């Protein structure tokens, strides 16, 4: 993944995954969240999603939930992952603010 935790931009998919996992979800629920949140603009395949989940888990941004009692493995955003998401939100807000100064609220 091309995400840069040191102030660079997250990929759109990574940001959506971190947001979706503020509450515990299994992989299929993450895929549905992203598809619903983007009106179908983003649709992840299982291989792409599980590769991303593994990468985010290696970075310490998400973790599997402790015994969830079900067959499906659920994940949740860690404290570190939430900090990364907050930094990305701040970066996006700055970007939108600058764009509004230049373009206006035409959209």
Helix content: 55-70%
CATH class: Mainly Alpha
Helix-strand topology string: HEHHEEH
What is the SS-derived class? mainly alpha
Largest sheet: 3 strands, antiparallel
What is the count of helical runs? Answer: 4
Strand content: 5-15%
Tally the structural domains: 1
Number of strands: 3
Cα end-to-end separation: 31 Å
Uncertain regions spanning at least 5 consecutive residues: none
Strands in their spatial order, largest beta sheet: 1-3-2
Q: How would you sum up the global shape?
A: globular
Report the mean per-residue pLDDT as an integer: 90
The CATH superfamily turns out to be Winged helix-like DNA-binding domain superfamily/Winged helix DNA-binding domain
CATH topology: Arc Repressor Mutant, subunit A
- Just name the CATH architecture: Orthogonal Bundle
Rg computed from alpha carbons, rounded to a whole number of angstroms: 15 Å
Can you give a write-up of this model?
It is a single chain. It is built from four helices and three strands. The protein has one domain: Arc Repressor Mutant, subunit A (Orthogonal Bundle), CATH 1.10.10. The chain is globular. The protein has 107 residues and is mainly α. It has a three-stranded antiparallel sheet with strand order 1-3-2.
